[in-house]
From TrEMBL:
The keyword Glycoprotein applies. It is found in: Membrane. Pfam families: Branch. Its main location: membrane. InterPro entries: BC10-like (IPR044174), Glyco_trans_14 (IPR003406). It is a single-pass type II membrane protein. It comes from the Eukaryota. This is Uncharacterized protein. The chain crosses the membrane at residues 12-33. The lineage of its organism: Eukaryota, Viridiplantae, Streptophyta, Embryophyta, Tracheophyta. GO terms for cellular component: membrane.
Length: 299
């Protein structure tokens, strides 16, 4: 894939794209996004503003739809597994690839195969560019960062007593959503880090695997330790944990899909509304497409 900037002759457009081009990074399991026609609609007409990078199970037969919106790169992948650092490794590979692939990539959005968009692409794009409340008026990363004492204790000691010391003191350990949007500055922090990574890639104790969610701990802890003012403290991806099952959030089924659901999922306690939501079953494609133009991709 060539850089979007190479397809335009206008110096003004070129300079803007170098600053604000967005790669949308998908962390995938064996299948591409089930509602891929919905994502096709989301991306359509904005191919010069994003790059797509896909991390897929190496044993899956995965293909990209032959359309301009899905022009993307498959990142050399290794199998991932829950309760292990493999999901962190996958995210780091995606981010490193996107950083090296195109210098115009300024935001890095990590999503899963079960995510759907809640707003049209321009709304996401403008949201990322409008947030400049960080140090010196710089853009911030949208990553959830929490320090709830009740939730942290078992997670911190999942690898054993005092294993995280001295690099990660107990009072600096954080957790949050595994899905986020990072600025280029923070993406570079992630791929350069070795100090914290040496701790978070250690295996969890078998008896404490129920508290082992490395991908929910590593990124919030790293960024909160290195640049807390550069982070919003919340994610743009809505997840319903009200009826979780063995660590998995609620999965929406076709009968639940409606205009009112989309509008409810958009609501946020933060400054901005949610841009994405999960988890949606593959069977949700038909009802999602029925409301795509009238609700999902219309503000």
């Amino acid at each position: 894939m060539t850089s979007p900037a190479t397809t335009y002759a206008s110096p003004f457009v070129l300079s803007v794209l170098l600053l604000v081009s967005i790669p949308v990074i998908f962390l995938l399991a064996p299948r591409l996004l089930p509602p891929n026609p919905l994502w096709e609609k989301f991306f359509r007409g904005h191919h010069h503003l994003f790059n797509l990078y896909v991390h897929a199970d190496p044993f899956s037969a995965l293909t990209m739809p032959p359309t301009p919106s899905f022009r993307g790169r498959f990142v050399p992948a290794k199998a991932t597994q829950r309760a292990s650092p493999t999901l962190i490794s996958a995210a780091r590979r995606l981010i490193a690839t996107a950083l090296l692939d195109d210098p115009s990539n300024q935001f890095f959005a990590l999503l899963s195969q079960s995510c759907i968009p809640l707003h049209p692409f321009p709304t996401l794009y403008n949201t990322l560019l409008s947030d400049n409340a960080g140090p010196h008026g710089r853009h911030r990363s949208f990553i959830e960062i929490m320090d709830d004492a009740y939730m942290i204790h078992d997670r911190y000691y999942a690898r054993g007593d005092d294993v995280m010391l001295p690099e990660v003191p107990y009072d600096q350990f954080r957790f949050g959503s595994q899905f986020f949007v990072l600025t280029r500055k923070h993406a570079i922090m992630v791929v350069r880090d070795m100090k914290l990574w040496r701790k978070f890639k250690l295996p969890c104790l078998i008896k404490r695997r129920d508290s082992c969610y490395p991908e929910e701990h590593y990124f919030p802890t790293l960024l909160d330790m290195q640049d807390p003012e550069g982070c919003t403290g919340y994610t743009l991806t809505r997840v319903n944990w009200t009826d979780q099952v063995e660590g998995h959030p609620h999965t929406y089924r076709p009968g639940e899909v409606s205009a009112s659901l989309i509008k409810e999922l958009r609501k946020s306690n933060g400054t901005y509304s949610y841009m994405f939501a999960r988890k949606f079953a593959p069977e949700c494609l038909e009802p999602l497409m029925e409301i795509a133009d009238s609700v999902i991709l219309r503000d």
